[in-house]
TrEMBL record:
Pfam families: adh_short. Belongs to the short-chain dehydrogenases/reductases (SDR) family. This is SDR family oxidoreductase. Gene3D superfamilies: NAD(P)-binding Rossmann-like Domain. The keyword Cytoplasm does not apply. CDD domains: SDR_c. It comes from the Bacteria. It comes from Herbaspirillum lusitanum. Signal peptide: none annotated. The keyword Oxidoreductase applies. PANTHER family: ALCOHOL DEHYDROGENASE. Keywords: Oxidoreductase.
Length: 266
């Protein structure tokens, strides 16, 4: 008998650990079959076996390094061709600690490839497939640093600002086709990304660090509420609305025939 899920299949990038693995567990319990994508095939297989045993869902493993073009195109093609996929979690990403002038520019390029190029291509593939089927959900993991570039490495923050802007534009473009798009902006979360970036997580104030389970649960609650942008740690959603309203108020004056008066003073 062929197994089918009423919820469909969720393709999750960066699924071997941290945020991606936690989403995989939560989505499995929501009835989604899974396609788990990451570089570490052994970890993926262990997770897939555990989730299949615990929940009865089908969990496929797709080992891929999204900074390698051939691997990225393989995942992209799966999104375009597999009509059973109903949700994309664009989660794979990396961070680099340090300043612009102190870090290896090649590592920056790798980060941009993973955090921007891969996210963009996979989002575009899912958007095309979902819009044709008039349903589907795309969740893009950004960061609160998209709103606070002064607080961390500027290039990392810029990649997450890209994800936020892309998501907001996608929601406007795709909502008429029945496609949901959400950006999740976590604050500091207890995952392996810190160690990989060369940052000592234990040096950070404990009150700033959220456990990954709580972060993902909040993000999924935001999805259920219909939020386009979810900031798990933000106490009052009105603060986000204030920022959005201020941004929209700039709109009428962002492109005018003449320069502002202050630039014409002698």
């Amino acid at each position: 008998m062929t197994h089918t899920s009423k919820a469909g299949t969720a393709l999750i990038t960066g699924a071997s650990t941290g945020i991606g693995a936690t989403y995989a567990e939560r989505l499995a319990h929501r009835g989604y079959d899974l396609i788990l994508v990451a570089r570490d095939q052994q970890r993926l297989q262990q997770l897939a076996q555990k989730l299949q045993a615990d929940t009865g869902v089908k969990a496929d493993v797709l080992a891929a390094d999204l900074t390698v073009r051939a691997d990225l195109l393989k995942v992209e093609q799966r999104l375009r061709d597999d009509a059973g996929i109903t949700l994309l979690l664009n989660n794979a990403g990396m961070a680099i600690d340090g300043t612009l002038i102190s870090a290896d520019v090649d590592r920056y390029e790798t980060m941009i490839q993973l955090n921007v190029v891969a996210v963009h291509r996979l989002a575009a593939a899912a958007a095309t497939a979902f819009s044709q089927r008039k349903s589907g959900t795309i969740i893009n993991i950004a960061s609160v640093l998209a709103l606070a570039p002064e607080l961390f490495n500027g290039t990392y923050s810029a990649t997450k600002a890209f994800v936020l802007n892309l998501t907001q534009s996608m929601q406007r473009e795709l909502s008429a086709d029945g496609v949901r798009v959400q950006a999740v902006l976590p604050g500091a979360t207890r995952t392996e990304i810190w160690e990989r970036a060369g940052t000592d997580i234990n040096a950070m104030p404990a009150e700033m660090l959220m456990n990954v389970d709580e972060m993902v649960d909040a993000a999924l609650a935001g999805l259920d509420l219909g939020e386009v942008v979810t900031i798990p740690s933000l106490p009052d959603i009105a603060d986000w609305q204030t920022l959005q309203n201020a941004r929209m108020a700039l709109g009428p004056n962002l492109s005018l025939q003449h320069a502002a008066a202050r630039y014409k003073q002698a």
